[in-house]
């Protein structure tokens, strides 16, 4: 479609469609209003009035009065039918209109009351046909007027489109064709400053710019010719520059050579520095190659250097041994670059003599090697010292364990002293009684003396048995503790009983102080583990608390707790109410040889032994927490069933106590 046709169609649809849509909705609205005003409202009015009028007639059974009222309503040509029935739905009066049914039928029904008593029903029907006919005639005239309005509006709009849009666009089309043909002299004309005028103005601006570009092209052509002339001048200057380069090349203090790129890399020229460094005449070098002159000590190194230069176009500080004309050797760093001069490809090489630098570096390497040897010797000496220190530490640990075992033996002797002393006293008393009984038998014994002797013998035997049994129990407990602490035997044991035996061996030492150790372990905890390492851990922790925790205090308490907080694991806590550990020392308590009582009986190995035994032999963890003035608590978490200890984790065995 052309622009003219498109505008014609768009204008027609733009005017006609809104007019038709608006007319349709306006007609519907007006028709509903007419029906409400001329049919619905009178229908409701007739129903209300007639319902009150026929009530008396129905009550009095007076059909004549009711018929008059109904016929009065039927005088309205829109009324189609009126029906009056009694309370039993029997027809009392019915009248139909003579003109028949047209249009839609509207019905209104009322209940008839007489003195608030229902006496019948009233139904009135009215038709909208007459209203529709009159409304259609009116709307036909309205549509005719609307069509005339649309035709007039369309004509005016089309006239405006043609004069203000179509004709100016056709003029612009002619101007565009003229510009496309190359005619840039005549300006584009426009009459009005509207959108079409703006378009014409833009087209004219484009004409001006294109004219400028064409002029610029002519100017560029002139500049290009000038540039060609300048290039010829530059080429002449380049020849002069090559002459200058030759002078610089000759006067350079660095040995340089220029060779052809390819073949044997024959030398084209060398500078004076090259002749001086390598001691070879220029006429001998020019036309020859480095390989032919024997300049390179190793031909393989030359091939590698030239291969890198050919591949990358650049060679940087490549080390190579070169030979002087008198046979002397130089270590040089060779750098090179490939260049193109006209249709020739050349290689420029520079040689820097680093022989003295190389000798200096070799001297430094020899010094470093000697220094490294001295460092290795010193390291070996330190390793031996560390090994001696480790042996000394192990010996101190063994001494610490033997000291603990000696303290335990002293405790055993002290504990056994009482029951054995009691047994000895009872035995000597029985011996005296037997001697007296023997004297009385020689003189003739009485029954009372015999009974007294038998009673004393029974009493003494009973006391003797209790004392000896107590001593045997002590020996058995001490033996078990000694065996546990001097060997790594795994067995099943009750934790509370094992701790009680350990505390029993520590009893003599603890009773020399004013402090008290409490066994607060639950009775039903059974472990399948290594009681020896466990006993050594608890012994060290209790001794550590007794020795260090109550400095400056007359009385103190140490509690040994144990409970099963999660299946398969037991938590043991050794807690005191002492002075506590300063925060700066708390992180170092497990370090070897760390003690706050150095020279006063403290070796600094007790807690370190504990720290090593808990994870290695018992498979658990240990931690410490402390509050100044409140006390310290060591928490040990162990498996109820320990893993098998490796041989290196087995503590050294000491002398065992016999049965």
Descriptive account of the structure:
With 659 residues, the chain is an alpha+beta fold. It has 14 helices and 16 strands. The protein has helices at 3-60, 63-74, 129-180, 195-251, 272-278, 282-285, 290-293, 299-312, 355-443, 447-486, 495-511, 531-549, 583-586, 606-616; strands at 79-86, 91-96, 105-114, 117-127, 255-260, 267-270, 314-323, 329-341, 344-353, 491-494, 516-521, 526-529, 557-566, 569-576, 621-627, 631-639. The strands form four sheets. Strands 6-5-9-8-7 form a five-stranded antiparallel β-sheet, with helices on both faces. The protein has a five-stranded mixed β-sheet with strand order 11-13-14-16-15, covered by helices on one side. A hairpin with a 2-residue loop joins strand 3 and strand 4 (117-127). Helix 9 (355-443) packs across helix 11 and helix 10 (447-486) crosses helix 12. The longest helix has 89 residues, at 355-443. The radius of gyration is 66 Å and the shape is flat. Residues 646-659 have low confidence and may be disordered.
Produce the secondary structure layout:
Layout: H1 3-60, H2 63-74, E1 79-86, E2 91-96, E3 105-114, E4 117-127, H3 129-180, H4 195-251, E5 255-260, E6 267-270, H5 272-278, H6 282-285, H7 290-293, H8 299-312, E7 314-323, E8 329-341, E9 344-353, H9 355-443, H10 447-486, E10 491-494, H11 495-511, E11 516-521, E12 526-529, H12 531-549, E13 557-566, E14 569-576, H13 583-586, H14 606-616, E15 621-627, E16 631-639
Parallel strand pairs: 11-13
Antiparallel strand pairs: 1-2, 1-4, 3-4, 5-6, 5-9, 7-8, 8-9, 10-12, 13-14, 14-16, 15-16
Helix pairs in contact: 1-2, 1-3, 3-4, 9-10, 9-11, 10-11, 10-12, 11-12, 12-14
